[in-house]
């Protein structure tokens, strides 16, 4: 196996020069840089990343923990985080917690062992104290943890307000709001707060249906919506806090013979790509996923460099009108 000394000998430079090329430190001419890289390729040399990270005290790796990479929103968000991390010279370690506290704790320990430079926490299974004990810079998604760990989210309250006002403006008289379990301490609960404020302000009949604690269990959505339409046949509006739930609502309405949007108007949340794949196409509240991914990487990198960043980072949302409402 080739060593850094072999690379230096083949390139006709010192070991120190090879090290400076690998760590991008100091001035190195393009001619010398090319000679070093050509020698590495010819010898099949692979630098020891762990040793380099110990030397630099920086791994150029960011950890990302999400509750379910199969969920379209977190899939798209992770894609954007990885894209912008790579642009800044970082690689990403992706951890899929599946809302399992044991698994999430194991992943956090793995990220510690790999000396990641920062962690973007999109899963919130563990207790606050376990996040606060992390030494790496950390940024949370859609959850406030104390007053020292910054967070990023969309404007959940405004999203809930826009969706509910839209349904009422279209003439809905009885609206069902389907949301995640409100016992989870998430900023997404503000969508529900906005829903309640608007329907009470307008005197609109309404009801709230919560999923169970595993908010990503899609098998439960069909059962939940079937029961809703059976027990409340006069529902004429549905505001779901994810596009996936909204898509199941469209499917269930078709199954029981209710026309969308003529008899039931439906609005989702996130505006993932799948919102345009269903028929009718789904009206949704768009979270700015690209901007969120870019900002998440920027905030983590700035913390890695020792900068202070804003505690609350809330991005605007937008109502995207399509055929379902």
UniProtKB/TrEMBL annotation:
Keywords: DNA-binding, Repressor, Transcription, Transcription regulation. Transmembrane segments: none annotated. InterPro entries: HTH_LacI (IPR000843), LacI/GalR-like_sensor (IPR046335), Lambda_DNA-bd_dom_sf (IPR010982), Peripla_BP_I (IPR028082). Residues 2-56 form the HTH lacI-type domain. SUPFAM superfamilies: lambda repressor-like DNA-binding domains, Periplasmic binding protein-like I. Gene3D superfamilies: 3.40.50.2300, lambda repressor-like DNA-binding domains (1.10.260.40). PROSITE patterns: HTH_LACI_1, HTH_LACI_2. GO terms for molecular function: DNA-binding transcription factor activity; transcription cis-regulatory region binding. This is LacI family transcriptional regulator. It comes from Paenibacillus faecis.
